[in-house]
Amino acid sequence: MGTEDAARDMDVLRAALGEEKLTYTGWSYGTSLGTSYAEQFPKRVRAMVLDGAVDPSLKWSDRVISQAKGFERAVDDYAEYCADVAGDDCPAGTPEGIRTLIDGLYETAQREPLPVDGDEYGLDASMVLTAITMAMYTPEQQWKGLSRALREAGGGDGTKLAALAAGEEPAPGIDDSEEPTEDPGASDGSRHLRCRR
């Protein structure tokens, strides 16, 4: 099963929902999925937004490297601008302190998962990576919550960081009174709207 098959599955879902045309937003790999859908079913597209397009000329391994570099730049931006977006919630006083905290949490979680309330397995290194990566998609919505989660994880409690990695709503630090927003925990190919409770 590949991207073209997944795009055909999207058309099956469109039809099952009784929609004449598809409205779609895709990020990262989701841009490949959207492009494939539009190529196969051009008359069934109502509107499509493709953000952060994947270069189809790159080999798979080059795409992974390119994406990793993009997320590294985004984490550097988080460290540099955390105080502007998250204010006093920043987990460290300097950009270097934030980078050191993130590196330390990842290394710690590689050796032994951080405790998570109600989860016997805890927060491992891949979950640390997932939480941080997902928060980079929507900085204005996620950086404050990420900052609080990182601060608590730095103190030994991985609960909020695990919730962020799982895409649970509301994300840590998000005010329930805010308007509905896109789910930062959804996979790149399947973004969707989720309303706040």
TrEMBL record:
Species source reads Streptomyces alboflavus
Q: Where is this region: Disordered?
A: 157-197
Q: Which residues form the AB hydrolase-1 domain?
A: 2-83
Give the Pfam families listed for this entry. Abhydrolase_1 (PF00561)
Low complexity: compositionally biased ranges: 161-173
* Protein name (record): Transporter
Any one GO MF term held by the record is: catalytic activity
Could you tell me the superkingdom of the organism this chain comes from? Bacteria
